[in-house]
Design a protein that fits this description.
By secondary structure, this protein is an alpha+beta fold. It has helices spanning 17-28, 73-82; strands at 6-13, 31-36, 40-44, 49-53, 65-69, 86-93, 98-103, 109-114. It has an eight-stranded mixed beta sheet with strand order 2-3-4-1-5-8-7-6.
Length: 116
């Protein structure tokens, strides 16, 4: 991997996008970056994006996960597996990116994503 890899967001599955946006903006004062209907909302958490995902976009089975933005999803998954991790969901075309779901060697869920 190289220096172009970064945590792009922290994925946080929720049952109700509108209610979750209200909760996180009212409770913590997070600013809303954008909302995409009932599927996704991006909130500014001080340099990190809190990515609220509705049921239609819940790729992790309800588990919060760091999402790593990488230049090449396939190469990142290869490195992850070589390092002892495992692939949960193979790369798939999302609405705005290519994404895959994986686990590190300790069982933590991570999302690996990049541009189409």
């Amino acid at each position: 991997m190289n220096h172009l890899v970064k945590i792009g967001n922290v994925l946080h599955p929720v049952a109700d996008i509108d209610a979750a946006v209200r909760f996180y903006t009212d409770t913590f004062g997070l600013a809303t970056k954008f909302v995409d209907g009932d599927r996704y909302a991006a909130l500014d958490a001080g340099g990190t994006t809190l990515a609220l995902t509705g049921p239609a976009e819940d790729v992790t089975g309800g588990v919060p996960a760091a999402s790593f933005k990488v230049p090449d999803v396939t190469s990142a998954l290869t490195a992850l597996v070589q390092g002892g991790g495992s692939v949960v969901r193979e790369p798939e075309q999302g609405p705005h990116e290519v994404r895959a779901v994986a686990r590190d060697p300790w069982g933590n869920t991570v999302v690996i994503y990049g541009l189409r």
